Amino acid sequence: PKRVRIRHFQQAKRDGVKIVGLTSYDYLSAGIFDRAGIDFLLVGDSAGNTVFGYDTTLPVTVDELIPLTRAVARGARRALVVADLPFGSYETNPREAVHTAIRFMKETGAHAVKLEGGERSAEQIRHIVEAGIPVMAHVGFTPQAEHGLGGHVIQGRGEEGAEKLLRDAKAVEAAGAFAVVLEMVPSESARAVTEALTIPTISVGAGPHCDGQLLVWTDWAGFTTGRIPRFVKQYAQIGKDLEDAANAFREDVSSGAYPAPEHEYE
Ligand code: KIV
Ligand code: NA
């Protein structure tokens, strides 16, 4: 399969073809999603919640994400692999941001990086892009800024919110981002941004008018236990399937039903 490249993102927006992404944190899921034709795989710092069991994404480190990103890159033959820059690895100054982005590109096989923030991150985006590394931006609700935003609050609401969202989106476009994630914003605000930009908008809970859709795979596949955001549609219940399987295995071992003769060596 031919590798998805950033020019295909621009082409998709021009042609009105939707872009589809999922997060991935390992080789097996990456291969499955890749074979299914998912266009890009984000190795999100959502791994903090889904892989490492933290309450937020704030503790996640570059050293934790690098091996996961490497595994995803090995599993993806067609999909564009995006490495998420964790909290504390790019905010201080553009030099730090370029340094972190280069580490991911050298050490993982990812094809692009993602970082959070609109106007506040524009300089970082500009310098990373100048180093030859594609950047996916991320505005609206930005989980690394959860405490600054006062919790899991919908962004881009009201006239002021919509204007700030548009300013942030235009800033990352001007800085050279090839796409921008809009997280948890009203559909109409996302529509206005999508119409105003030439780069594609990728919705995470930003409604149907964006140029693409992205979900955290463990939410989407029903792997996660606990509360799932309103915008997630669950396409499977693998958490329940695995629990049922573990129960069945335990019962079979207790009863002696497993292993059966066909599982034995002579
Ligand atoms: O870390 C992540 O999974 C993300 C997406 C939800 C946008 O940043
Ligand atoms: Na993230």
Automatic annotation (TrEMBL):
| Family per similarity comment | Belongs to the PanB family.
Where in the cell? Cytoplasm
Q: Which GO terms describe its cellular component?
A: cytoplasm
The biological pathway it contributes to is: Cofactor biosynthesis; (R)-pantothenate biosynthesis; (R)-pantoate from 3-methyl-2-oxobutanoate: step 1/2
The UniProt record lists the EC number as: 2.1.2.11
Q: How is the cofactor bound?
A: Binds 1 Mg(2+) ion per subunit.
> Where along the chain is 3-methyl-2-oxobutanoate bound?
D45, S46, D84, K114
Which reactions are catalysed by this chain?
(6R)-5,10-methylene-5,6,7,8-tetrahydrofolate + 3-methyl-2-oxobutanoate + H2O = 2-dehydropantoate + (6S)-5,6,7,8-tetrahydrofolate
Q: Which Gene3D superfamilies match?
A: Phosphoenolpyruvate-binding domains
Which InterPro entries does the entry mention?
A: Pantoate_hydroxy_MeTrfase, Pyrv/PenolPyrv_kinase-like_dom, Pyrv_kinase-like_dom_sf
What's the subunit arrangement here? Homodecamer; pentamer of dimers.
Q: Which residues cross the membrane?
A: none
Q: What gene, per UniProt, encodes this protein? A: panB
GO MF term (any one): 3-methyl-2-oxobutanoate hydroxymethyltransferase activity
Q: What does this protein do?
A: Catalyzes the reversible reaction in which hydroxymethyl group from 5,10-methylenetetrahydrofolate is transferred onto alpha-ketoisovalerate to form ketopantoate.
Which residues are responsible for catalysis?
Answer: E183
| Entries under SUPFAM superfamilies matching the protein | Phosphoenolpyruvate/pyruvate domain
Needed cofactors: Mg(2+)
The protein's UniProt keywords, in alphabetical order, are: Cytoplasm, Magnesium, Metal-binding, Pantothenate biosynthesis, Transferase
Q: Name one Pfam family in it.
A: Pantoate_transf
Instruction: Please report the name of this protein according to its UniProt entry.
Output: 3-methyl-2-oxobutanoate hydroxymethyltransferase
Please report the organism this UniProt entry assigns to the protein.
Agrococcus pavilionensis RW1
Q: One GO biological process from the UniProt record?
A: pantothenate biosynthetic process
